[in-house]
Write a structure and sequence with these properties.
mainly beta, five-stranded mixed sheet, four-stranded mixed sheet, rod-shaped
Length: about 170
Amino acid sequence: PMDDAIVEGEESITMTLNASAAYTIGAANSATVTITDNDSPTPPTVTITATDATAAEAGQSTGTFTLSRTGPTTSPLTVNLSVGGSAINGSDYQTIAATFTFPAGQSSGQLVVTPIDDALIEAPETVGVSIIAGAAYVVGGPSSGSVTITSNDVGATLEFDGSGQAFVVGENLQ
């Protein structure tokens, strides 16, 4: 065998002795040798993009992240995620898990952000998702994305001393 950098899997060769008047062949007239490849396949590269970066409580308009992977898709691939942002996972939008699994045969998949319609008066909030490194894949770029959720709840407006500055009751004035 010759050592190379090509991922080939196992290869085998079978040698068989043919009858000849010059020698006698015993019961075992053949042998098989298996050559094991020492080259590892390149792990897939995984990326994420906010393909629909806006979501809204009104009508529960969803936002979408698209995850993609390179390489063979013969097996499922589970990717670790970090979910954050100013919106609260499970309170401001339906829970997003800390992992995403590509089913076998698929090179991309979607992670949907579904806002939860509440009665709170809120400024726009963000959902950030990042890919965390894992042993079975390489983190590519882009490795994170953000979806903004807008609220459909309104409050009363107050104006002070005719200054033209308006504040919404319940608004967070940070």
